[in-house]
């Protein structure tokens, strides 16, 4: 099993040291979080809590993904990087294609584009993007990205994106991998149909095996069961060696250690506190797999 460390809300000025230390300990990668903007007032429609209220606050840090991944890749050699998840339909496909291709090249293919459709309507309103169309925009954008990543002269004409013949350079020798996040059946279908992997947040241990089975079934429906595919799930339970041994037997490919805010029980923490948590996690869990 592969083990990732969540760095969502971690202090930005600590990230390079976290990356170096995580690599030394044997973590497979780091997973960040994303919001384009964070409004002062938000309706209670967060999908991953019972009361609909998000756990984050406006002063929680959401640094630019391109900048942090490039910086962390520059000080490591094996560590992978992804976002769980990047709100794709808010962004311009040409900018995403260029940034992700460049990151893939500079990181020696250690970058994964983790995407989702987003849940915060206010964020879409501020960007001037129709929240109701975010799923369709995402599907069209994935198609556009794959065209641009060929590095050839391409054009595209659809409901949401239309452009004449253009060429992206530099293009990576292998296109960036796309992992799709979300809990709806539509999200699972998108992962099975168009993704190289799936990112799940807060999955109950009892739900892991049925979820993996559902993804396998859907990949079969889309005739993609023969292609490489990774399910990366954050588990809604106390981390333990025994827990992950059971989940590995259920077929789980990789998992994510909780964000430091959850693991340490406070909003802010020192670099040394984060290192101690990662060291304990590596000693008690990671090194037994």
From TrEMBL:
Transmembrane segments: none annotated. Keywords: Flavoprotein, FMN, Monooxygenase, Oxidoreductase. Coiled coil: none annotated. It comes from Candidatus Marimicrobium litorale. InterPro entries: Lucif-like_OxRdtase_Rv2161c, Luciferase-like_dom, Luciferase-like_sf, SsuD_RutA_monooxygenase. This is TIGR03619 family F420-dependent LLM class oxidoreductase. One of its GO terms (molecular function) is oxidoreductase activity. Its EC number is 1.-.-.-. The keyword Oxidoreductase applies. The keyword RNA-binding does not apply. Gene3D superfamilies: Luciferase-like domain. NCBIfam families: F420_Rv2161c. Residues 12-256 form the Luciferase-like domain. It comes from the Bacteria.
